[in-house]
Design goal:
single chain; 570 residues; 5-stranded parallel β-sheet; 26 strands; 31% helix; disordered N terminus
Length: 570
């Protein structure tokens, strides 16, 4: 970098940093309303509930509604609750037939057969629909065939192969194309010992998928192909674009400020905006790393870390709240009650190999108690002079419904993979049976939360037992996600790991044609975010010096942002 450019870049950071204090004092500005396609005519998601495992049908219905939440609200209904004629009140129908022994009712089948609305039908019940629809094969150009039990271990979609784990590799309803002019095979299921068979077929705006692809989700799974199908079915005229997100993970008060600045410099030099997941309070109540002495301190006690965080923001970073303490004093959860390693909003245990098991809610699992905990953390941010965050990442991606409700009441955006619970829709959740979902594009989920995708995991090949991946694997998943027409490649990197892993991943993802964007830009299409509640005045406020610096930021912040933008264009 030339000396003059270095000075300009440094000036940009200083000017933007001066503006941060005032940003923390001023209320967040509402975004201009963005159109949400289909919001006035929501989707109807009907799931079968007459089989041996009705709880699975409900969860899979929720997952389907979440994927549709990119394009409008979806109402979820068990098949037993469907009433004659109500399909006509909705923009489109998605039917989740996850159970072999659950049969759609004649009333429901008659409405679907007579409807001209778009339909997405998953797996079972298709033979009954064909029987209830006069001239089904002539109308759609295909007919259901015999159930095929041969193993098929991958799904081919748009020139890419997606995995299909052995546990779900056998058993697919057959699809026999009778008129290729009317029926287009969108994807095929394949295996070494079995010929390819249609996995998804489209006839106009009727799309049939031969399985419910929510079991055994992974970054390269056929679920990604399904999400891409959902997107094209729900919004046929949408844009073709591929964006990327990177998050620097587990930054607490004990982080090394020099390393944080180094990461900021590397990403700034590449013109890459990024996110920083921050927990505000470090606790080691048993003194495991302090000679047996209980230890606790906050960001306010570590001014050099706070300065480094401001430097990261001035370099294109967005601060994300990553819990309050990233642990709980109630119990080892699952390790040593030390911040950064333990869960905070849900109970967990670990086996000898480090594999986690989610056990259930922690004691005092109450929405108001979780709100109080979040407020404690937000007060630490205020006292440290940091602007109130608008995005939250749950430690280890686990929380109870009460905790999720508290998070949603305090921060409008979740940036993570999310757990959902059977019975949650009826207000009787099975709190010990979380089901995990990631999304390849931003959505509004069934709880009303705006969810930013994280769908590639992290480059950490030495931590494979705990979910770490090679750089090549992360980049390979990003390549598969190019099948998603308007999708994301989103991964994270722990601040204490080798920055070479981070930069190799960033450059590999960018080489595929992805554009890195800030997280809030990623959700702009979902409409304006709700305003965060005003913080309560408590404790120490901003000093006179800090106020004057913030006032200066009012005049120079815009200039700094302009210089930074010009630097990125270079």
């Amino acid at each position: 970098m030339q000396p003059r450019r270095s000075i300009v870049a440094l000036l940009a950071r200083l000017l933007v940093a001066l503006g941060l204090g005032l940003a923390g004092l001023a209320p967040a500005q509402a975004q201009a309303p963005a159109p949400v396609r289909g919001a006035a005519k929501p989707f109807l998601v009907v799931y079968d509930d007459g089989g041996a495992r009705p709880e699975l049908g409900e969860v899979y219905g929720v997952f389907t509604a979440n994927l549709l939440g990119r394009y409008g609200p979806a109402e979820i209904r068990p098949l037993s609750g469907y009433r004659a004629g109500e399909l006509q009140n909705y923009r489109a129908l998605a039917y989740v037939g996850s159970e072999y022994d659950a049969e759609p009712s004649p009333t429901f089948l008659a409405d679907v057969a007579a409807s001209e609305h778009p339909v997405l039908w998953l797996q079972h019940g298709i033979h009954q629909l064909a029987a209830a629809t006069p001239g089904f094969a002539q109308r759609f150009g295909w007919r259901p065939g015999a159930y095929d039990t041969r193993a098929r271990t991958q799904v081919a979609y748009r020139g890419r192969d997606f995995t299909r784990r052995a546990e779900s590799a056998a058993g697919l309803p057959g699809v026999e194309v009778t008129d290729p002019a009317k029926a287009e095979v969108l994807a095929t299921a394949e295996g070494e010992a079995a010929a390819p068979v249609p996995w998804a077929v489209r006839s106009g705006d009727f799309v049939y998928v031969a399985e419910t692809p929510y079991a055994y989700l992974s970054e390269d799974d056929r679920y990604v192909a399904f999400a891409a199908l959902v997107q094209r079915w729900a919004d046929p005229g949408g844009p073709e674009r591929h964006r990327a997100l990177v998050r620097i993970e587990d930054v607490g008060p004990e982080a090394d400020p020099d390393r944080l600045r180094r990461i900021a410099d590397l990403l700034f030099a590449e013109g890459v905006p990024f996110q920083v997941a921050v927990y505000d309070t470090y606790r080691d109540p048993m003194g495991r790393f302090s000679g047996g002495r209980p230890t606790s301190f906050t960001l306010k006690d570590r001014p050099l870390v706070v300065q480094a965080l401001r430097y990261m923001v001035a370099s294109g970073g967005t601060l994300v709240m990553h819990g309050h303490t990233h642990q709980t004093d109630v119990r080892p959860n699952p390790f040593g009650e030390v911040s950064g390693g333990d869960y905070e909003f849900y109970g967990a245990t670990a086996d000898a190999g480090g594999r986690m098991t989610l056990d259930g809610p922690l004691p005092d699992d109450d929405e108001s108690a979780w709100q109080a905990r979040l407020d404690e953390g937000l007060e630490v941010w205020r006292r440290a002079g940091l602007a109130r965050p608008r995005i939250f990442t749950t430690p280890h991606y686990a929380a109870s419904p009460a905790a999720y409700a508290a998070i949603g009441s305090r921060l409008p955006v979740q940036y993570e993979q999310v757990n959902y619970f059977p019975g949650e829709r009826a207000g009787r959740p099975d709190l010990r049976r979380p089901f995990h979902q990631f999304v390849p594009y931003p959505v509004r989920d069934i709880r009303g939360a705006v969810v930013v995708p994280e769908n590639l995991g992290r480059p950490a090949p030495d931590q494979a037992a705990a979910g770490g991946r090679t750089v090549e694997a992360v980049i390979g998943s990003a390549e598969r996600n190019l099948a998603v027409r308007d999708g994301f490649a989103s991964f994270y990197h722990h601040w204490y790991r080798d920055p070479a892993e981070l930069m190799a991943t960033v450059r590999g993802v960018r080489a595929l044609g992805y554009e890195f964007v800030p997280a809030e830009d990623a959700v702009a299409d979902l409409g304006p975010l709700p305003a965060a509640p005003a913080p309560e005045e408590a404790g120490e406020g901003m000093s006179l010096t800090g106020f004057l610096a913030a006032l200066a930021g009012l005049f120079v912040g815009a200039i700094g942002l302009g210089v930074f933008a010009a630097r990125r264009r270079r």
